[in-house]
Amino acid sequence: MAVKKKKIGAAGRFGAGYGKVKNKLIAVERKQRIKQECPFCKGWAKRDGRSIWLCTKCGKNFAGGAFHLKTQKTKN
Ligand SMILES: [Zn+2]
Q1: Rounded distance, CA 8 to CA 11, Å?
Q2: 31 C-alpha vs ligand 1 centroid, how far in Å?
Q3: How many angstroms does the Cα of residue 73 sit away from the middle of ligand 1?
Q4: Has residue 76 got a pLDDT over 60?
Q5: Centroid of ligand 1 to alpha carbon of 53 (angstroms)
């Protein structure tokens, strides 16, 4: 029988331990790799700094979420 391996992806760099935190990190880092759509044109925006986004197509600089352009609304 093959040994069951957990899919930890990019969080594998931390080695053993930190199980729950690693799972959260995977969720965040996967989301970061999704392309962010520019609100002005149909191009893609790149993160240029904390909450600053730069469109690769129209070259516009604009503000957005710190790590994702469209931030999720938190449940209160
Ligand atoms: Zn654009």
Answers
A1: 6
A2: 20
A3: 23
A4: no
A5: 10
Nearest 10 degrees: Cα torsion 19, 30, 54, 50: -10
Give residue 60 CA to ligand 1 midpoint distance, Å: 6
Task: For 10-63, write each residue's pLDDT tens digit.
Answer: 777 777 777 788 888 887 777 777 778 888 888 888 888 888 888 988 888 888
| Whole-angstrom Cα Rg for the chain | 17
Does 58 or 65 have the greater pLDDT score?
A: 58
**How remote is the CA of residue 51 from the centroid of ligand 1, in Å?**
16
CA atoms within 13 A on the CB side of 11: 18
CA distance 68 to 51: 8
